[in-house]
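Contributing new records

If you add data, match the layout below exactly. Sequence lines come first and carry their own label; structure lines follow with theirs. Keep one chain per record. Anything else will be rejected by the validation script.
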Amino acid sequence: MRYVGNIFRPPSEADSLLLQTTIGCSHNRCTFCAMYRDKQFRVRRLEDVLEDITTARDEYGPDVRRVFLCDGNALILPTPHLLRILTTLEQSFPDLQRVGVYANARDLVSKPIEELKELVGHRLSQFYLGLESGSDAILKQIDKGATADEMVAGVRHGMSAGMKSSVIFLLGLGGRKHWRENAIESARAVSQMNPNYLSALTVTVVPGTPLARQLKSGEFELPEPAEFAAELRLFLEQVDVKATVFRSNHASNYVPLEGRLPKDKERMVAELTEAIKHHRFKPEYMRGL
């Protein structure tokens, strides 16, 4: 397999074949993110992608069941381009069950429902969207490039076509000053999305990013572990979804949690309360990006 630059994928795609269809991220301006800073966004030649599928078939055999399309937002590709990739994957891997992709609100809503349904019919059935925050003020501050309502619309659009949604938001993105706003507004947006999967990660300041410069200048103040936990507790208290698998057991999190919402809400809130009361947080040396 041939890759340009560093390759990233969601934790749940750990066992997937990683196929690079685009290089970098078309937005690539979020102040906290360093994932694609070393790349200028471009679309890989279709011929190269198809050659990589052949290589993967030769190396791994026909039993690949999951594929993740890298890089940052492969859903930006025109539908005929994506269909050529998907049909080649289906022909190469007869037991293919699912193809996943990072997506943003603009790319989701730009495709008509009929086109999305066609993609779903060829196994492109899961997308991952970084909400980051439900607060438009915070989204503007981090240069997300979309409002909360636009991202709600994008998630609902994709789900209405039969795609499964996995939404990520970032604890601490509002700093110490706006932690309540981040929690409450993120809960509001997630409640409107009602995603299949939801992950809470903890903001990590990466050297060289605009957020790192804001931290150094004092414009941004990173919360303490107990404040991150209080923010997550408030979020869980406020969120209202029908049947969502929830995870905050990413390496970045101080208090690992997992459960189903709303069934496990009270238990997880109680676990956070206990962690805050007894200062039981993951030590810094065990945390990572």
